[in-house]
Amino acid sequence: MSNTFTRMGSANGYDNALRNLTSRQNALSGLQENITSGKKIVRSSDDPTGAAAAERATTRIERIKTEQRALETQRGAITQAESTLGSATDLLNSFRDLVVQAGNGANSPTERDTLAKQMVGIRDELLTLANRKDSNGMPLFNGLGSTASPFETSADGVAPDPDYTYNGLPGQTAAGTVAIPFTLDGRAAWMDVPEGNGVFNVSLGTTNTGKAFSNVGVVNDTTLMATQGTDYTITFNVPIAPATGPTTYDLTNNTTGTTLSAQAYTAGQSIAMGGISMVVSGVPANGDTLEVNPNVSANRPSIFGVLDRAITSMYAKGSTTVGADSTDANFNQEQAISLAQIDTSLEKIGAARGKAGDLLNRADRITDNQSAKTIQSQTDRTNAEDLDMIAAIADQKNQQTAYQAALQSYASIQKLSLFNYIG
Hints:
Blueprint: H1 10-37, H2 48-102, H3 109-130, E1 151-154, E2 163-166, H4 186-190, E3 200-204, E4 213-214, E5 218-219, H5 222-228, E6 232-237, E7 248-253, E8 258-264, E9 269-273, E10 276-281, E11 289-294, H6 303-313, H7 329-385, H8 389-413
Antiparallel strand pairs: 1-2, 3-11, 4-10, 5-10, 6-7, 6-11, 7-8, 9-10
Helix pairs in contact: 1-8, 2-3, 2-7, 3-6, 6-7
């Protein structure tokens, strides 16, 4: 039987012990570095996969911060636009109050001239609001793009003057998943106000000499209106002295070419025409007419044009200095139209303001969503690189104890040698 002996020199044992001590010291030093930094990944080489995950999370967080800064700028612009529309609503209501006040029969022509001057001031202020800019110098109502001032005035000598034009691109920029538009559609907010009641218009004949006028009319039956149309002419027949008799009117449907003759006229009563009707008041002269025509979208004025029409009605027909008389048919007719169109203008401004409110609500939802994404990204980054301090400290204690034991063990054997026992 043979025995196998493995001989190990003292130097080899010392080297192994030193390597183990150095390894334990490096591990303890690395753990100390992790605890000091609070990270389990100090260098990418510590954990390439975890480092990449942490970097992706950090990139997402920074991108969200950038998107939120842009969103806050957009929110500020839309907030200012909404506030501007609120101021416009107040101005329009003030203008409407002046129109109603002007309709009071107790006001003299001179007082109507004074009211007209106040209306001009409100009109000018409203135009300034429409061209208002945000803190970055961008128009609030430039739609898809415009010049520095989206709304401009010009005069071509053809009534009605001045003319108001929208120099922007009509339309509304769509909101995204992380952004809302900077601006609102100025054309939708300030232009294209339907005339009259929005379906048909009523106007006095150009040669009228009497005092008859009407309201803007209403639609009673859309089905009947579709077949009978909205194109009528009312011609008044008033007996001329020495003839006597009641005042009548002939109603001509210009769509069908039919005429109802000698219909009894009573001031303040409704006149039905197919599927529409209107109330006619005042005393007509013989041959006076009222024209009913379809509302043509191409002729729709801006809100500023609506106010100009109301201002013009404050003066006697054809004058810019003499106030209108309360019994003047043109004044009363224009009063009815102006009030209806101002109400429609208020609805347009209200709709635009509602759009701004919707965008601000969307901005709030985007912010909430971005906050949730930020929290998730921070959690991902924490999971990838942050250190569990309790576990790390416990591990450090264990490592330190093991290292101390290794040092003591090495110290007890480093002087041992066979030569110590050879005498």
